[in-house]
Specification:
elongated, 2 domains, PH-domain like, four-stranded antiparallel β-sheet, about 230 residues, three-stranded antiparallel β-sheet, alpha+beta
Length: about 230
């Protein structure tokens, strides 16, 4: 007795090409998309929050009714650490602070400035400045790298200026060394000439002394002859 047989379609394997694609054809390459980079306050700042919590806790224990509000200070600092950030993406800069947020397109950013204190500032095309939250001087390299050349590399410009200054000083030192070598050569050339002139002057002086001595001898001989004739 034969049993009924029902055909079952083959199971889809990982080697089965996708529907609508030719066998053996490779998938179309997709352009890599750049992920947004988030610049935040360092997590080491939470250690400072812990120290702050211990300080306010001892004060709170001393007078709980009047100093209970001190316990809110560590909470506020934690909120500031977790919320303050700058996100760098292809669309621009997303700035987030404790009480608000703002988006800047790359067409609005004209450059960046480094103040003496605080976060880095972005110079906008409308001659205004905006703080970049969490972007301190030590995070400026991350901002420049994530901008893909939209923000000029200040460190490269500074390095080029230092290299140019070093080359200028090197050229100046070489020029001074060359001038010193020329002066030494001239001194060596002039010294033999001066010695030769001094020797000639000494020889002339010696010849004059010899002539005077010879004249004196002749005069003495004449006086001697005259005395002999008188005798």
């Amino acid at each position: 007795m034969s049993s009924p047989h029902q055909s079952v379609p083959p199971a889809k394997s990982s080697h089965t090409p996708a529907a609508g694609s030719e066998t053996g054809s490779s998938p179309e390459p997709t352009e890599p998309t750049q992920t947004a980079q988030v610049i935040r306050i360092t997590q080491m700042a939470h250690l400072g929050v812990l120290v702050l919590l211990l300080c306010v806790f001892f004060a709170f224990v001393g007078w709980p009714i009047g100093l209970w509000w001190l316990l809110l200070l560590p909470v506020a600092v934690v909120v500031w650490i977790e919320r303050t950030r700058t996100t760098v993406s292809e669309d621009g800069l997303d700035l987030r602070t404790v009480f608000g947020s703002r988006h800047l397109d790359w067409t609005q950013v004209a450059g960046v400035g480094i103040p003496k204190r605080g976060f880095v500032r972005a110079h906008l095309t409308d001659d205004t400045e905006v703080k970049l939250p969490a972007v301190s001087y030590d995070r400026l390299r991350d901002l420049i790298r994530a901008s893909n050349g939209r923000i000029p590399d200040l460190f490269a410009a500074e390095a080029a200026a230092r290299e140019a200054e070093y080359e200028a000083r090197k050229s100046e030192d070489e020029a001074q060394s060359t001038e010193a070598g020329i002066d030494e050569t001239n001194a060596e050339t002039t010294e033999p000439e001066a010695n030769a002139e001094a020797a000639e002057a000494d020889a002339e002086g010696a010849g004059t002394d010899v002539e005077v001595s010879t004249t004196e001898i002749a005069a003495r001989d004449s006086d001697t002859d005259a005395r002999d004739s008188d005798d």
